[in-house]
Amino acid sequence: MISTKLPHDLAQCVQQALDEDLLGDGARQYSDINADLIPAEKTDHARIVCRETAVIAGTAYAEEAFRQIDDRCELVWHVHDGERVEADTVLCDVKGPSRALLTAERAALNFLQTLSGTATTTAQYVAAVEGTSAKLLDTRKTLPGLRNAQKYAVLCGGGHNHRIGLYDAFLIKENHIAASGSISAAIERARQAHPNTLLEIEVENHEELMEAIDAQPDRIMLDNFSLGDLRSAVEEKPEGIDYEASGGITLDNLRAVAETGVDYISLGVLTKDLHSIDLSMRVVDEKPLP
Fold it and tell me: What pTM did the predictor assign?
């Protein structure tokens, strides 16, 4: 079970998803014309099933979708976020008003399949560096509106979060350096502006690396360094500065990058190249929940 705190914008994120499905142009209340086919008093019992091997994430998002439609919906989860499941595993039993179950279904499954996809991909990459000291980081290359949700899913898959946005850590890149005049000038200004904030700077070659080391940031991103250059950089790595490898890293070369001795590896693929997990919800025979 993942012990990390759920994202603060979870309920708002779910509401936005429901609004997409249920608010027509200029409408002030939700409308599901398909639900009108079902008697208002009818209740049902449904099951959410995972159709492939996956690492689960997003159970709270799915539950919130049902709750926002009708708080009489009752969910019993058989898995936890961060848990690996095999194909055809029953994730959850849901019971409640039939109209509510079917109205909330798509939004609930969208969150589960998307976030579980992020967690599953992350777990695959984390497994590839097992036994090394490297930690895998996500990036800001996330789906619009799902930044916090996807970063939570990375944690569910065993990865780590890089900065959340542009407000919680410095990542000084090529354009910032050019605008500031030099690597050392950019670092000095950053320290003056926000002295207690994590400060990372990106370098693209050995000369820039040496200048960055002299300016003493907290972390240096080695962008698109070859394996040989990464090893050389690690050999002369000073105390108190972490190294992060980034750029051109795939599942095929990930292990080799980790074995160079870098502290972190950042990967946009964890959140941007998404494979949604195959899930389904099916109404089953009416019976008490376990």
Answer: 0.94
Identity of the residue numbered 124: Q
Which token pair is 97? 């008003």
Coil, helix or strand for 286?
Answer: coil
> Shortest CA distance to 47 belongs to which of 31, 62, 36?
62
Q: Is the pLDDT of residue 287 over 90?
A: no
What's the token pair of residue 155? 């944690």
Q: Does the active-site annotation cover 273? A: no
Inter-residue contact 154 to 270 (CB < 8 Å): yes
Nearest in space to 241 (alpha carbons), one of 261, 222, 217: 217
Please indicate whether residue 84 is annotated as part of the active site.
no
State yes or no: pLDDT of 1 exceeds 80.
no
Residue whose pair of structure tokens reads 């972490």 in the numeric block = 242
CA-CA-CA-CA torsion for 109, 113, 114, 120, nearest 10 degrees? 160
CB 85 within 8 A of CB 56: yes
SS3 call for 16: helix
Say what the alpha-carbon torsion angle 230, 234, 239, 242 is, to the nearest 10 degrees.
Answer: 30
Express each pLDDT in 233-247 by its tens digit: 999 999 999 999 999
At 261, is the secondary structure helix, strand, or coil? Answer: coil
Options 141, 189, 191, 272, the catalytic residue: 141
CA atoms within 13 A on the CB side of 50: 29
Q: What is the DSSP letter of 93?
A: E
Chain mean position to CA 233: 30
The single residue of 47, 84, 106, 272 carrying the catalytic annotation is: 106
From 42, 48, 90, select the one nearest 65 (Cα to Cα). 48
